[in-house]
Write a structure and sequence with these properties.
Elements lengths: L1 E4 L5 E4 L2 E4 L3 H12 L4 E5 L12 E3 H9 L3 H5 L2 E11 L2 E13 L1 H10 L6 E4 L2 E5 L5 E5 L4 E4 L1 E4 L6 H5 L3 E20 L8 E4 L6 E9 L2 E8 L6 H8 L1 H8 L3 H5 L4 E16 L6 E3 L5 E2 L7 H21 L6 H8 L2 H22 L3 H33 L10
Parallel strand pairs: 2-11, 3-4, 3-12, 4-8, 6-14, 12-18
Antiparallel strand pairs: 1-2, 5-7, 6-7, 9-10, 10-11, 13-16, 13-17, 14-15, 15-16, 17-19
Length: 405
């Protein structure tokens, strides 16, 4: 990376790749590329990533993707490990799943990743004022006059539209107001509950995907995923009196939690499903949520973002930099990558299916909901019967004879 000064006082940074946006996708991409010996400039408007509400649990498949990028230890260092989750359907405990999950605050993970950036990454804090892209070199000018010249621009700005618009890329909403994510803290320490974590599923008729409770450090955190709009009267009622709204929606929850109180405000994040249009351009590539967005309820967003990073940084960028120029024909190989396209398609399909199962009218979806309800209620009955039998066996006198059913 070279830094030069012009006679007019302008500072010019020359590098191979400039990454705009230092969230999950951008910071991970900058790290992977720099470790591979590429000269990288990472631009973000904040020196420290600010608090931002996102879905707040990783599973082992997500950590496996972090590990493939060499970032697993860094990411898990900012999380709280979880080893069991109680599954509730129709108010009944139907399973206790054993397996590692991780509670986290999104900003904590991003700031841990930033702190571990290779020293060779030039982290630039500033606002992008201009972008000039083409089949040769790319130019990014910041609001303070600094100019970065590179072979490639990686746009990793998530939901922000400013950078895409500057290069002529449009965001298309494929489903406006697809869902809502709500986040809040409970008013007792995580250790005071009888469960480590739980998932409480909707009935299929209440516009609810599920509520999950899990620890982030000492706090019991809640994420609720519903298929409603931000200006819905129900949403307003949750903001004004969350305890009453949750008691009405999930009447068994108070019993499970031995009392259910809140600490602080309810955070609400509207989710739109979007895709990019006009993105096949010279010199610029979109990664993660900058390319398309999906619903967090099925838990597919992090997989989609990290798959983008892995394919782009380990497969495509090395091939692109091996030959001169950066025409759109090169960059198309990433957008057409079969692993990327199948991962994106699966995430979109799961986002739509989950919503349809909760709210869509018509005999097909009604039949699916009835079938699922019967299967889940049957599982609950079997589990209760098993618990009762086990209890009677445990309570039988030690005579060498089995307890009577």
């Amino acid at each position: 990376m070279n830094v030069t000064g012009h006679s007019d006082g302008t500072r010019v940074i020359d590098c191979e790749i400039v990454v705009v946006g230092a969230g999950l996708a951008g910071t991970a991409a900058a790290t992977v590329l720099a470790r591979a010996g590429r000269s990288v400039t990472l631009i973000d408007s904040h020196s420290v990533f600010p608090p931002e509400f996102r879905a707040e649990k990783f599973g082992d498949p997500h950590i496996a993707l972090f590990n493939r990028l060499g970032l697993g230890d860094i990411a898990t260092g900012a999380t709280t490990p979880i080893d069991s989750i109680d599954i509730y359907r129709f108010g009944d405990l139907v399973a206790r799943h054993r397996g590692r999950e991780y509670g986290y605050a999104y900003s904590d993970v991003i700031n841990e990743l930033r702190a571990a950036l290779p020293v060779s990454v030039d982290m630039v804090v500033g606002r992008v004022a201009e972008i000039d892209s083409g089949p040769g070199l790319q130019s990014v000018v910041l609001a303070d006059g600094r100019r970065i010249v590179s072979r490639l621009i990686v746009v990793a700005t998530g939901l922000g539209d400013t950078i895409r618009r500057k290069v002529g890329i449009e965001r298309i909403e494929t489903r406006k107001a697809h869902s809502l994510s709500l986040g809040f803290d409970l008013d007792r320490p995580a250790a005071s509950y009888a469960f480590e974590s739980l998932a409480y599923y909707g009935s299929g008729y209440d516009r609810v995907a599920y509520l999950t409770l899990f620890p982030i450090r000492e706090t019991m955190r809640a994420n609720l995923f519903v298929y409603r709009e931000a200006n819905d009267p129900w949403t307003r009622s949750v903001r004004q009196d969350p305890a009453q709204a949750l008691a009405t929606l999930m009447p068994g929850l108070n019993r499970i939690c031995d009392g259910f109180g809140f600490a602080g405000r309810v955070q609400v994040r509207p989710i739109d499903l979007t895709r990019s249009q006009g993105h096949r351009r010279d010199g610029v590539v979109l990664v993660g949520d900058a390319y398309c967005t999906t619903c967090p309820a099925p838990g597919v967003g992090v997989k989609r973002v990290l798959t983008d990073v892995e394919r782009l940084c380990n497969i495509h960028i090395p091939a692109w930099l091996a030959t001169p120029g950066m025409p759109a024909a090169k960059i198309d190989a990433f957008y057409d990558d079969p692993v990327k396209t199948s991962t994106d398609a699966a995430a979109i399909r799961q986002s739509e299916f989950s919503r349809s199962m909760a709210i869509d009218p018509g005999p097909v979806w009604a039949a699916r909901r009835v079938r699922n309800a019967m299967v889940r209620k049957g599982a609950a009955l079997i589990r209760r019967a098993g618990v009762a039998i086990a209890g009677s066996i445990d309570a039988a006198p030690m005579t060498g004879k089995p307890a009577r059913p």
